[in-house]
């Protein structure tokens, strides 16, 4: 995800990870180990996970400019694959 975030940093794109019930020191370690510069939302009460119906991890949601979920991935993926890049480029071309 770090590579994808870097590739799209100058576009109208945001990447946010949500860490539920994780220790802050573990989140900091993860960011350093994976060279992850995007923000990580830390929630100790799992409110965001509950609101989105997350029962297992990892999960990825694609949310359009209107705030609607337009895609969901329920496993670890290569977000730099051609298919993922095509999907993201398609979403970025939506009218503002």
Query: Judging by the overall fold, what is the CATH architecture?
Result: 3-Layer(aba) Sandwich
Uncertain stretches: none
Derived from helix and strand composition plus strand pairing, the structural class reads alpha+beta
List SSEs in N-to-C order.
Answer: HEHEHEEH
CATH homologous superfamily designation: Glutaredoxin
Question: How would you describe the overall organization of this protein?
Answer:
The protein has 96 residues and is of the alpha+beta class. The protein has a single domain, classed as Glutaredoxin. Helix content is 33%, strand content 18%. It has a two-stranded parallel ribbon with strand order 1-2. β3 and β4 form a beta hairpin. It is globular and about 35 Å long. It starts with a helix and ends with a helix. 2% of the residues are buried. The mean pLDDT is 80.
